[in-house]
Specification:
This protein is an alpha+beta fold and about 200 residues long. The chain is about 35% helix and about 35% strand. It has one domain. The chain starts with a strand and ends with a helix.
Amino acid sequence: MNSVKILDLGVLHFQNNVKVETTIDFWAETVEFNDISNPAIAIQLRTQIVYDGNLQDFINSYSDRTDIIEKISQSLKVKPIGNSGQATIKELVGEIKEYRSHLLLKVTDAKVKKRIESAQDKDLVFRVQFGKSSALYDYPANALVPVITAMTAHLFKANYGELLKATKISYEERKNLIIEINKIIRKCLKSFKQAFEA
């Protein structure tokens, strides 16, 4: 699924560098009716509670780095830059000075490559896992954005209940969103139709 962000609903900032981001993505799908495949568009409203900075910034904000590294190495959720998915930290790999050349050989995303190149020698590298896949990937901490959950909100000194309230969309806002999304999708389809007929 290659999704495209069609609408950024903004960011609500909270104390301690915590923010709530809401976006709307869409992608092409096929649906089957009576054993016939039909083209369709899938739309997803995505709200994430994240740290306003990268994982290395978060680690550096703590006076006791050893303690916070130990805590986050036990399954903190993160959002790698250049990737719309979420991953789970599985372990600390080490300092980037030991792994930079290895990471540069494997990297395919330009944004992550830039982060690897710009990382300080003492910045950290973590091993992450996406979903239920058994594959593990190494990322520099400056290319990971911490995702805040009910289990980890205390690490960010955040009130998860207040953050959760900020993710709710009222009926009126939801209705207006549907109208706005409909306009965007119609415009995209009209452009596609014109290009197809040309």
